[in-house]
Amino acid sequence: MPADLLLQARDLTRSFGRRRVLRGVSFDLAPGQLAGIVGENGAGKSTLLKILAGELRPSGGSVVLRGALGYCPQAVVLNDELTVEQHLDYFRAAYGIAGLERAHELVARLGYERYLRSTVGTLSGGTKQKLNLTLALMHDPTVLLLDEPYQGFDWETYLRFWDLAAELRDRGRAVLVISHLVFDRDRFDQLYTLRDGLLQADVVPVASR
Amino acid sequence: MSAYLAATRYTLIEQARNRLALGLLAVFLPVWYFLLGAAIERGPAAFKLSATGQFLTVDAHNVTVLTSGANAIALICGFTIFAATRKGAAFDRRLVLCGLHQPVLLAAKLTALAGVALAVSAYSTLVLLAFWRPESLVLVWLGYFLVALVYGAFGLLLGVLVQSELAGFFLIIMVGLLDTAFQIPVENPAGNKDFLHFFPAHGPIQLAVAGGFAEQLPFSMVLLSLAWVAGFSLLGLAIFWRRTRAWNARGRLTSRQLAAAK
């Protein structure tokens, strides 16, 4: 993989039974890039992200990743019996990082500090999603794969999420966001559409920063 | 080490918050001791110690109370570990994808399993005292601890193997009931038969009865029980290892590897 890339996916295919969901997807992510993938329901967006994150094995193709990965799955993956604070500590141990300064900063920015000691099973859907996102970002990864990470966010938190994504991009991180919202489109530097199992690069939106 | 401690701690916290299992321990266990004991009259029964071939004369009521405890422990431990393993599958996967080493998580699962087995067996042994005073409480506890480990490991295996919650519960209940009920020689035509040696609860119940009635420790039964624990848990952990692994683990160049390559 060229030194100026953080992620390189080549010829990814994936079938479920006879249904071919991905038919040869290739793309790259470079430092400082905020890319988006859009597509209809069932187009294979989440399948693609799961493959990139290492969760799902493709039928063919390869993925090379450089640096630490942050992955926010579409469905919230948390433990209902543990508190928010315990989640942060558990993932601190998993990532092998020393402190929780970044995690606490994210909790504050997403505005759910008052739930630190609540067990996750008692939280609202939106707060669970905030924790789901925090767990993907707390180790300050180089590559971020976010699958509709703002589901259930109120408008203000949704805007804060985009501030955060832009900030990460500006700090040289590579960010890939799956979205189904039309009005997200002009937030990306590069937009891809997943259609018929293939990824098409759209014309770079005018508002690209 | 810190990752192992964190993983063990949070696995144990999760299991301690299983309210249904705690309720079963508090209510079901004493009721089970009482009901099964009340159903069987006092009187002599012959119990074969498979380690020596010797027959012990035991009280039918007491041996039923003792084995009913083993049965309840098998169900509660099997259920607790099964429920936690199955429910936590996606979460464990996420932890591994985030960098938690699989052997660390596996070791934490086994430690938590031993912790649950220790707590459940100690509590069950103490409750047993309200119904019967065995010759050696420690050996009865050892039998109970091993049955808890065997069925905890069985729960772990089912937790990674069985998709449906109902199917898992059904299997634990059916296997647990048949396994422990067959071991009691009271009103059971299969009791003391040789084929029972191949049942998972055979070793633990032999230990509990030999210890509870004659203060004997048939060491081969400890090994037999541990073989079941090892068999169930190794199979379960192998499936778990395969399921939680990132498919492209080799394609991931971590910052540490990159620094080493420079």
Give your account of this protein's structure.
Chain A is of the alpha/beta class and 209 residues long. Chain A is built from five helices and nine strands. In chain A, the strands form two sheets. In chain A, strands 5-6-7-3-8-9 form a six-stranded mixed β-sheet. In chain A, strand 6 (143-147), helix 5 and strand 7 form a beta-alpha-beta unit. In chain A, helix 3 packs antiparallel against helix 4. The longest helix of chain A has 16 residues, at 155-170. Chain B is mainly alpha-helical and 262 residues long. Chain B has helices at 2-16, 19-39, 60-87, 89-97, 102-128, 137-161, 165-183, 202-214, 219-244, 255-261, and strands spanning 44-48, 55-59, 252-253. Chain B has a two-stranded antiparallel ribbon with strand order 1-2. In chain B, helix 2 (19-39) runs antiparallel to helix 3, helix 3 (60-87) packs parallel to helix 6 (137-161) and helix 5 packs across helix 9. The radius of gyration of chain B is 20 Å and the shape is elongated. Chain B starts with a helix and ends with a helix. The chains are: A alpha/beta (209), B mainly alpha (262). Chains A and B meet through strand 4 and helix 2 of A and helix 1, helix 4 and strand 3 of B.
Secondary-structure map:
The complex is a heterodimer of chains A (209) and B (262).
Chain A: E1 7-16, E2 19-29, E3 34-38, H1 45-53, E4 60-66, E5 69-72, H2 84-95, H3 101-110, H4 125-137, E6 143-147, H5 155-170, E7 174-178, E8 190-195, E9 198-201
Parallel strand pairs in A: 3-7, 3-8, 5-6, 6-7
Antiparallel strand pairs in A: 1-2, 1-4, 8-9
Chain B: H1 2-16, H2 19-39, E1 44-48, E2 55-59, H3 60-87, H4 89-97, H5 102-128, H6 137-161, H7 165-183, H8 202-214, H9 219-244, E3 252-253, H10 255-261
Antiparallel strand pairs in B: 1-2
Helix pairs in contact in B: 1-5, 2-3, 2-5, 3-5, 3-6, 3-7, 3-8, 5-6, 5-9, 6-8, 6-9, 8-9
